[in-house]
Amino acid sequence: MNLYQRVAIANPKEAKSVINQFGYEIRTNNLPQALRMLVSSEGEPALRAIVNIHPDKDLILECFAEDKSSIRKDENQSSNSNSDVFLNVVGQQLTEAQKSTQLTNTFLIASTLIILTALILKK
């Protein structure tokens, strides 16, 4: 069952009212088809009007709100985790390129110190 069928079966009076709001008359007994044609000719405003009279709208919105809040919590937790955050000396978060450059510089300094230590000990 698609959106148009669900709305037409559950709320036929409201469905006819939406069609009339957009200035159309219903010339068919197939209300779902009339709703589909309304959306194809009027676009998003008609679709939004149909969704507003959907019998399960509140349930759908409630589920969608729960999904969005759990996604936000996951994003906040991942952005707050210290394992993925690299900060420079003054505490600013680094970009990927800056992270790579900082790691390369650290490696070069460490390598230089090891070589210098080896040369000093060899003499």
How does this structure look, described?
The chain contains 6 helices and no strands. By secondary structure, it is an all-alpha fold. It has 2 domains: about 5-55, no CATH class; about 85-123, no CATH class. The chain is rod-shaped and about 100 Å long.
Shape: rod-shaped
Number of helix segments?
6
Quaternary state of the chains: single chain
Q: Structural class, from secondary structure content?
A: mainly alpha
The averaged pLDDT comes out at 80
Distance between the termini: 86 Å
Strand content: under 5%
Helix and strand pattern: HHHHHH
Number of strands: 0
Helix content: over 70%
Largest sheet: none
Radius of gyration: 31 Å
Count of structural domains: 2
- Unreliable sequence segments: none
List the helices and strands and how they pair.
Elements: H1 3-10, H2 12-21, H3 31-42, H4 44-52, H5 57-80, H6 96-122
Q: Could you list some keywords that capture this structure?
A:
123 residues; 0% strand; mainly alpha; single chain; rod-shaped; 73% helix; 2 domains; 6 helices
What is the gist of this entry?
By secondary structure, the chain is mainly alpha-helical. It contains six helices and no strands.
